[in-house]
């Protein structure tokens, strides 16, 4: 199956998407927050927070670019993969590589946990201030590179909450095909 046919872009609410794993744009504490992080914790219920507390107790905060996996609680997914995106500081502090690591590490965790499908939000584009067009380019490139090396995933969805991110993702994905 060609790589581009495995990737889809959906405008909607990531907490309603039926996939094996949804990705949470988390903060280092893993204890919930605003934006997609808060929405996932609210919709998924207390099981997710409890699992995150156990991870933090075992390993400490999650560092930028890394990812951890938990139950999905009440969500229509099997797992939530929590990853901490970079805070935009102008692009000269390794932000593109850190953001790409978020996608690569989440994809790797999905494969290691026998997931066939995964859904991503637009990581770091909210309060972390990453320019949406640059973040979309990093996301698409990282996912395409991963899919060239691994055939385990059958579906990768980018779930865009707003029309702006949806249009950007569509344009960038089309330009790479």
> Based on the structure, what is the oligomeric state of the protein chains?
single chain
General shape: globular
Average pLDDT, rounded to a whole number, is 94
**Uncertain residue ranges:** none
Structural category: alpha/beta
CATH topology: Leucine Aminopeptidase, subunit E, domain 1
Number of helices: 6
Can you identify the CATH class?
Answer: Alpha Beta
The biggest beta sheet is recorded as: 6 strands, mixed
The CATH superfamily is identified as: Leucine Aminopeptidase, subunit E, domain 1
Number of strands: 6
- Give the N-to-C terminal Cα separation: 14 Å
Quote the beta fraction.
Answer: 15-25%
CATH architecture: 3-Layer(aba) Sandwich
Question: Cα-atom Rg, whole angstroms?
Answer: 15 Å
Question: What is shown here, in short?
Answer:
This protein has 177 residues and is an alpha/beta fold.
